[in-house]
Structures are given as structure tokens and as C-alpha cells.
Amino acid sequence: MRVHIDALQCEGHGMCAATAPDLYDLNDDGYATPTDFEVPSGSESQAESGATACPMGAIKVLH
């Protein structure tokens, strides 16, 4: 499972990191980074929760 974050859609609300801080990091400006990463085994539900929390729909979980 992979996560893709559309950097053009991300507005830096930080809800992904608030919901799943072990997976989603924010840069100094508050934007999610990195924009593409592999989800560690056992963290799939956190990845989904962080994606769902994004008010801009900038996060896609790719199965």
C-alpha cells in the first residue's frame, strides 16, 4: 500500500498528521511531506484515517 499526497491540493491544515502522527509529517510551513511513501505493514488503517481526515482530499491511498 502506498500513499500519494497531491502537493498542489494540500493547504497545510495538518489534519493528516493530527490523526496519524506516526505516518504523516509536516514541513516547517505545515504541509504534508513526503508526498509519496510506502505504508509500513500494520499501519494501513492509520493511512486510511489520515487520508480521510484531509479536508482538501489531497491524500490518496493506493492499494
TrEMBL record:
Signal peptide: none annotated. Its cofactor is [3Fe-4S] cluster. Keywords: 3Fe-4S, Electron transport, Iron, Iron-sulfur, Metal-binding, Plasmid, Transport. Pfam families: Fer4_15. InterPro entries: Fe-S_cluster_ET. One of its GO terms (molecular function) is 3 iron, 4 sulfur cluster binding. PANTHER family: FERREDOXIN. This is Ferredoxin.
